[in-house]
Each structure stands twice: as structure tokens, then as C-alpha cells.
Amino acid sequence: MGYEHIRVESKGRVGVITLDRPQALNALCTPLIDEVNQALTQFEGDDKIGCIVLTGSEKAFAAGADIKEMSELTYMDAYLGDFITKWEQVSRTRKPIIAAVAGYALGGGCELAMMCDFIIAADNAKFGQPEITLGVMPGAGGTQRLTRLVGKSKAMDLCLTGRMMDAEEAERSGLVARVVPADDLMTEALKAADKIAGFSLPIAMMTKESVNRSYETTLTEGLRFERRVFHSMFATEDQKEGMAAFVEKRKPQFSNK
Ligand code: CO8
């Protein structure tokens, strides 16, 4: 399939989506988001893909929603068109998805990265929620996901001042899982994705679902959910294979069943 604003490729069992709108620092215009959603649907339906990496360029993961597209939007356009809801497909993706972030991840760009399961950042990455400087506030998780990830104080600081934070601060505050040299970003992201894709896909998906459940529920209910899912894993062939391989001192051959 031909795409205008993204590049899509498979590397072994890893599906890679690269935002590719350099003239606008990967600003997230509606056609770009439509393409990301199509690529996600394609990878979700492909048995040969076990993990997805979402990335941008060295200069920008994404500099936010497209301000030029948004500037003339009316309240009714936004309300009746349900602006932003369809942008959340990344967060509904069931396969594991890693954001590999270099350069600017601002506004909707930071929010898009936070919709992924974890962020690997290049040491030149810059994160921020500068919407307040434009007379609006974050609309795709910047006041919600960011607060859960970095806590109220830092989320308030970022959302109210609009300042950027560098990769080192982002890792220290829990937004980012790891920071790597910019030149190694894709190598490291692909290594992590390849590792995940080498495990049992249903087990990885259930693990993701269980970690995500911790955001949505109480500890008691979350633990109950985790226990039920854990019990169900003993109905899989991959549990039998994984444990037999350990006992027999060999590498497991997961069948995704
Ligand atoms: N939208 C549209 N165009 C953009 C955007 C953007 N967000 N960011 C950069 N561009 C364009 C510039 O207009 C410029 O185009 P042109 O050459 O035609 O004028 C080109 O990209 C290069 O940008 P700069 O010349 O500004 O590059 P600099 O290196 O000088 O500066 C910055 C880089 C600091 C990143 C600067 O471009 C900037 O501040 N950009 C805007 C950042 C911002 O405010 N982002 C938040 C947008 S609001 C938002 O995201 C709401 C979220 C809604 C939900 C989204 C769901 C996923």
C-alpha cells in the first residue's frame, strides 16, 4: 500500500511505522493519522508481526498536532467531528508497540508516544506539552497519561509552563523507559522489539493487557484480573513449551498457541 506521510516496513517479526512529514517536523495532520491507523490495522492482522515500533526522524518524532490544520477549527467542527478520538487507535493496539523517540515530541507528539507501551528515547529527545502557549490545553492524554507517568507536580509544571524537558529528565521522571545515544536509537528499539516478538505473542498481549489494567482499576481488582489471566496461561501450548524448554535446558519454540 502506498503512503504519503509515513513509511511502513517489516523487519523480521517487527513492524516499523516511521512518521515521514519532514517539512512540518512530522506534525500530525489528519491524513497522517489515518495512515498510521491503516498501518496499525495491517500489522495487527498480520500473524507474522509480533511487535510494532513507531518512530519519526532524527529531528522530530512529532512536533504536535498540525497547528495550521487546527487553527480554523470551530467548536462544532471539533465536537461533531469527534476531533482526536480516532487518533487514539495506537492506545487500542493489542500487540506490543514501542515508541522510538528522537528530537521533538511535543503536544500531540508526546501524547502519541505515551499511547505506546513504552518509550525508548534518543539522548537528543525533547518532550513537552506546549499547548498552553497556543491558547489551548493537551487533548489526547497530556493531562491524564502524563500525570500518571510523571506525577502531578511535574505534569503541572510541563502543562502550565509549556516548557520542554530533555531525555535525561524524562527518564528520571518515569516518562521514558531508557535513553540511548541518538545514533543507536533504531538499533536499540529494534533489538527490544525483536526480543518481544520472539516470545509467545498471546502471552505478550495478555501481559500488556494486564499492565494496562493497573491504570484503570483498584489494586484488589487489578490483582484479581492478573490472577485470572495468569491462570488462563496454563491452557496455552506456549506455557507448556516454555517451561519444558527450561527443564530440558534448550531454547523454547513458541507456537503462539
Ligand atoms: N503544526 C504545523 N506545522 C508545524 C508544527 C506543528 N505542530 N511544528 C512545526 N511545524 C512546521 C513549521 O511551521 C515550519 O514550517 P514552515 O517552514 O512552512 O514555516 C516547519 O515545521 C519547521 O518548523 P520551525 O521552522 O518552527 O522549526 P524550528 O527548528 O525553528 O522549531 C519547534 C522547532 C520548536 C518544534 C517549533 O516548530 C514549534 O514550536 N512547533 C510547534 C510545537 C507545538 O506547539 N506543538 C503542539 C501543537 S498543539 C497539539 O499538539 C494539540 C494536541 C492535540 C491532540 C493530538 C493527538 C495525537
TrEMBL record:
Keywords: Lyase. It is an enzyme of class 4 (lyase). NCBIfam families: PRK05862.1. Its EC number is 4.2.1.17. GO terms for molecular function: enoyl-CoA hydratase activity. Coiled coil: none annotated. InterPro entries: ClpP/crotonase-like_dom_sf, Enoyl-CoA_hyd/isom_CS, Enoyl-CoA_hydra/iso, Enoyl-CoA_hydra_C. It comes from the Bacteria. This is Enoyl-CoA hydratase. Belongs to the enoyl-CoA hydratase/isomerase family.
